[in-house]
Amino acid sequence: MKPSIYFLTVFILLLLILPTAVPSHDYSDALRKSILFFEGQRSGRLPIQQRMAWRRNSALNDGKNLNTDLVGGYYDAGDNVKFHFPMAFTATMLAWSSVDFGSYMSPNDFGHNLVALKWATDYLLKAVSQLPNRIFVQVGEAQADHDCWERPEDMDTPRTAFALDAPHPASDLAGEIAAALAAASIAFKQANPNYSRILLDKAVKTFQYADSHRGSYTDNPNVNQAVCPFYCSVNGYKDELLWGAAWLRRATGSEFYLNYLLQNRQAFGADFNYFEFGWDNKVGGVNVLIAKEIFENNVTALTAYKDTAEKMMCAFFRETSGPHMSYTPGGLLYKSGSSQLQNTAALSFLLLTYADYLSKSSQQLHCGNLMFPPDSLRRIVKRQVDYVLGDNPMKISYMVGYGEQYPRQIHHRGSSIPSVSVHPNAFGCLQGWSIFSSPNPDPNVLVGAVLGGPDVDDKFIGKRTNASDTEPTTYINAPFVGVFAYFKSHPNFS
């Protein structure tokens, strides 16, 4: 055998014998669908570019009782109420996904993510349009809405808009809206500079309201009755003040926000409950976001934030000393709550973000005498992502429309009731409950919706009657957008 033929034969045999890295999931498909989901949650007048075609216009008179325009925005979950607090967090996370993970998206995905973000920020600008005198809190009466099972196009429940007037405090709500608008101003800086300036200007003014009138928005009895127990600010308002200031620091570079973060870190509890991150508790996100200043600009005055972020990261590794995060037997990050995957999504985002900060500064995670490379953090996130997409004890995808096996009954009114195009006549409030308890699959597929997920034992009851298992939320999907974008760009990571 000639040497050239010999070496070619050996090369071919090696290709056949050696394992090749094959992506375990189609992360590109997951990313595209995770963004598409937001079209199914839209409230208001839908654009001609609407791709989730079974949805129609809804809630076109929102704000009328307060003589203002509050049409638009997102329904937060499977109901038809617009809760501004979680909506703002959703917007912040869509913006953060664009800012830190947009380079991993295709131009098409990036564009669609900006569209999803703008649908939220256009509405949030309305929510703070009457500052410094008034901030809008919510549209819809939660209890009346939850007493009905009807698609948003048919709503006949009260669409009462709720507001707080100065000097009533709303630091948590206003702080989160300020964070969302500031983060979005960065996301739109290149694509829409004029809009970016509008967002940043309003973010500054919204933060001023939050800081000037300190206190929780749910401390007000009228608002408390409307919002609670669904989106009470259980964690208080101080974390949102730090969160808003952190995003404004990143958006403006202003020393004012740097000094604010330095002066208020201990008083506002950045060292307390730092294992949490979600629509109510921003502490984990605050520490990770501010750590970027240390990694990139060596702003050593902020080192305490990075140190706390590092303690949080170390808690994900079982071999470290100190407190640890919990995992299910199947490997899912688990924190108790009514919607399990919201915790998984938000914490996964922080892990991946911190890993990128470490990589870009050529550093490792220090946990006492142990050191972990950035890929160690990414492997934890990869396990979460693959679990959500089907590598779990139940062998199902928790993203609707992804893969062959996913829940066909979800706790979502619009998805479960035939669309207007199929059934033009309205479904009444009580008529819908027969559909709610029906064993039939949903007639409308809410593509891309990541559901509440399994319990601590990896068990999942895939029926729409089990809200904690099968209800999707915007604030589960929003962090996953950035996470899916990373693995779309690194499909063979293992």
UniProtKB/TrEMBL annotation:
Instruction: Cite the EC number.
Output: 3.2.1.4
**Matching Gene3D superfamilies:** 1.50.10.10
Q: Any idea which residues are catalytic in this one? A: H411
Q: Name one Pfam family in it.
A: Glyco_hydro_9
Gene Ontology biological-process entries: cell wall organization; cellulose catabolic process
Query: What GO MF annotations does this protein's record show?
Result: cellulase activity
Domain Glycoside hydrolase family, chain residue ranges per copy: 27-483
Q: Which reaction does it catalyse?
A: Endohydrolysis of (1->4)-beta-D-glucosidic linkages in cellulose, lichenin and cereal beta-D-glucans
Q: Where is the signal peptide?
A: 1-23
Q: Which SUPFAM superfamilies match?
A: Six-hairpin glycosidases
**Alphabetically ordered keywords of this record:** Carbohydrate metabolism, Cell wall biogenesis/degradation, Cellulose degradation, Glycosidase, Hydrolase, Polysaccharide degradation, Signal
- State the similarity comment: Belongs to the glycosyl hydrolase 9 (cellulase E) family.
Protein name in the entry: Endoglucanase
Query: Which source organism?
Result: Microthlaspi erraticum
